[in-house]
Amino acid sequence: MCSMTDPNMPIIDSKTLRQKIEDDLIRIVDVRRDQEYQQGHITNAVNLPLAKLLADDSVESIQKIAQDLGISDETSVVIYDDTFGALSSRVVWALQYIGHKDVKLLDVTYSQWKDLGYEISTEVPEIEPASHSVSINPEIMATAEYLEKVKENKNVVIIDNRERLN
Questions:
Q1: Using CA atoms, how far apart are residues 114 and 108, in angstroms rounded to an integer?
Q2: How confident is the model at residue 40 (pLDDT cuts 50, 70, 90)?
Q3: Confidence check: pLDDT of 6 > 60
Q4: Buried b vs exposed e over 29-63: b needs ≥16 C-beta within 10 Å?
Q5: E strand spans, the chain
Q6: How many CA atoms lie within 13 A of 80 on its CB side?
Q7: Which member of 119, 120, 128, 157 has the greatest number of CB atoms within 10 A?
Q8: Is the pLDDT of residue 49 over 70?
Q9: How far apart are CA 35 and CA 25, in angstroms?
Q10: Phi, psi values for residue 144, rounded to 5°
Q11: Dist. CA 82–CA 28, nearest whole Å
């Protein structure tokens, strides 16, 4: 069983993030819509509306997005949304897929962060583009072939996190 402090667990708690913001040791990515981000976001967060990633989720596009957000291979990254990880988990997965090692989900939503009285801002931080390599992590990709093989396996849980269209 993993704990919240397990380095392999892709979650970071809000108190730890606050300290990292003060020390300026992290890239924080807000995946809410641009207009929501403009109204307020976690201090120093950059915006990546999920729709931008989903419009082209090729390896090359994910790499370019990471680079444009100032994410290098060594950058610690925290992703958050306002939907309990439903949107941000897709961005975490995309970065992990291209080989990014240090990416985590925030354990609270933006609204919860704000309700806790933690620092928010409307200031958009300057982003220095970075270089990010690609080292595909194929074992996190569930292909149709894989799903067909494991669909009867009781030890495999398949979760569909696509947004409902109705």
A1: 10
A2: very high
A3: no
A4: bbbbeeebbeeebbebbbbbbbebbeeeeeeeebb
A5: 11-12, 27-30, 41-42, 45-47, 77-80, 103-106, 120-121
A6: 25
A7: 120
A8: yes
A9: 26
A10: -60, -40
A11: 14
Tokens of 144: 């149709």
Q: Please give the model's pTM, rounded to 2 decimal places.
A: 0.86
In whole angstroms, give the CA distance from residue 58 to residue 63.
9
Helices (H) and strands (E) in the chain, counts: 7, 7
Burial of 123 (0-12, 13-18, 19+ CB in 10 A): exposed
What is the average pLDDT across 145-163? 81
Structure tokens at 111: 């609204």
Structure tokens at 141: 């990709």
The answer to whether the CB of 162 falls within 8 A of the CB of 124 is no
d(CA 78, CA 28): 5
